[in-house]
Design goal:
single chain; Aminopeptidase
C-alpha cells in the first residue's frame, strides 16, 4: 500500500540521513488531505463497512474497513500513531478527514476500549500522478506497543479483500523518514527489505521511479499493486509515468 509505510514507535524517530523537516511533513499531510478530495471508485458501489476480531498476545483487536467519520471520531489514537502527523491528536484528525471523503477508504485496528492501534488508508494519489485514472496511494501504520504481533499483515489482508480494489492501482511508497529504524534496531536497507516482503504477500511489486519523494533517499521504495481488472492501456500509462521527469535528462 501511501502508502507511506511505517511501523512506528511512541516517540518520533526519523531517518538518520534525513533530519526532521516540519515544512516537508506539513506538505505531506496536506498532500494526503488534498488527494482525498479527488473522485474515485472506492465508495461508488455503496460499500458496506465490515468488521472482524483478531486475537493477539497483547489482547483482542477489532478490524473494521470503510470506517465512517462518526465512528472514527468515537475512537482515540494510541500514542504510537504519529508517523504521518507527528502527534496522535493530529493523526486522529487526519483519519477523520480521510473517513469523510467519499473516494477514500479507511481500515482501522482498535482495542475493545476504543484505542486505534493500526491503520490502512487508501486515497487518490497526489498531484505527481495527475492524469492517471484510478491510481490510489495506500499507507499502513501500527503502534509500537502492538508491533511484532502480525497486525500489519492482518490489517493489509483485511483491507485488500474487497472486489472493487481489482479496478484500481495502489501505490505503497516506503519513505525512510517515517521508519522507526532505531527502535527496531534495523538498518534502512533491512527495513526496506521487510517492507518489500510484507507487501509482496498481497500482490505488490517493486518499481523503479523518478517520483520526487522516492528519489530523496536511496533506501526509499516504490511498490504497486495493479488490480486484475485494470486494462492494458491504463497499465501502460502508469508504467510511462513511473519514469517521467521534467528535471532528469532523457525521462
Amino acid at each position: 500500500m501511501v502508502a507511506r509505510v511505517a511501523l512506528k514507535g511512541c516517540r518520533p524517530i526519523f531517518s538518520r540521513g534525513l533530519p526532521y523537516n516540519r515544512k516537508r511533513d506539513n506538505e505531506m499531510i496536506k498532500e494526503r488531505q488534498l488527494a482525498a478530495e479527488q473522485r474515485g471508485v472506492l465508495r461508488e458501489n455503496n460499500t458496506i463497512s465490515q468488521s472482524t476480531t483478531i486475537e493477539t498476545p497483547a489482547g483482542r483487536l477489532v478490524l473494521r474497513n470503510f470506517c465512517s467519520p462518526s465512528f472514527v471520531e468515537s475512537l482515540r489514537a494510541d500514542c504510537g500513531l504519529r508517523a504521518f502527523a507527528r502527534l496522535p491528536e493530529r493523526e486522529h484528525q487526519l483519519l477523520v478527514n480521510i473517513a469523510r471523503r467519499p473516494d477514500s477508504a479507511l481500515t482501522l485496528a482498535h482495542t475493545l476500549s476504543g484505542e486505534i492501534v493500526g491503520e490502512v488508508t487508501l486515497a487518490p494519489a497526489d498531484a505527481w500522478w495527475a492524469g492517471l485514472d484510478q491510481v490510489y496511494e495506500g499507507a499502513v501504520q501500527v503502534s509500537s506497543r502492538w508491533r511484532r504481533l502480525g497486525i500489519a499483515r492482518q490489517l493489509l489482508a483485511f483491507a485488500l479483500h474487497v472486489d472493487v480494489l481489482e479496478e484500481i492501482i495502489i501505490l505503497a511508497m516506503g519513505l525512510s523518514w517515517h521508519w522507526d529504524m532505531e527502535g527496531l534496531g534495523l538498518t534502512p536497507y533491512r527495513y526496506r527489505q521487510l517492507i518489500a516482503q510484507l507487501f509482496a504477500n498481497y500482490g505488490f511489486s517493486e518499481y523503479l521511479t523518478s517520483e520526487p519523494n522516492i528519489r530523496m533517499d536511496p533506501a526509499n521504495i516504490m511498490l504497486a499493486r495493479i488490480g486484475s481488472h485494470v486494462d492494458q492501456q491504463r497499465i501502460n500509462h502508469f508504467l510511462d509515468r513511473l519514469l517521467s521527469s521534467q528535471t532528469l535528462p532523457g525521462l
